[in-house]
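[agent] plan:
  1. take the single chain provided in the ticket
  2. run structure prediction with default settings
  3. attach structure tokens to the ticket
  4. add a short note for the reviewer (M.T.)
[agent] executing step 1
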Amino acid sequence: MFFFWTSLGFVFACVFASFFEWALHRFFMHRPTAGIRYPYERHALIHHRIFKADHTYHLTKEEDKHTIPMAWWNGPVLVGLCQLPFLIAAVMFQKWGLLVGAAVACTAYYSVYEYLHWCMHLPKRRHVERSGIFFRLNGHHLLHHRYMHKNFNVVLPLADLCLGTLLLRSKTHFKQAVGPSVPCVQPKNKPMPMPVSTVS
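[agent] step 2 finished; step 3 output follows
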């Protein structure tokens, strides 16, 4: 029974983490909210200024490498905050497996976020960069660097899909980053209309 509640906590926490990531990214990392400026300054004012959707999507200056990951202490804080609903549920229903599953899921989600984000901006032809999932998520994140109010998810774009911020391709043509693990996110060419014959 403990395994059941642990599995349930893991699955629900993965879904919740997508919405948590989305809310954090949209409401705190792209604007100051409730007097909290640190995420906004680190992300919107520094990270997005250095890494754009063109060739600078990939690291160009070694001294900017430290701006790719979050600060070390962000991990424990965010993982802890993400587990709060599961802690409350575990206390209310005395199902501690929920909290254990959530702890594993939230920790894994944050770790995957940091690793994928690192690989996206500092590609090295790693094994993960050759996967189809990474290829699609990389295009998803590249579009976020083009349109900062779209594609807030990095790991699991479920919240982007559900909350109307999912963008699959650019609205206009632009000079985008290229590489073996970077998909083309340009608008699809619209077919030319067939000419109408005027000969009767």
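[agent] step 4 note for reviewer: The first helix runs from residue 2 to 27.
[agent] ticket updated
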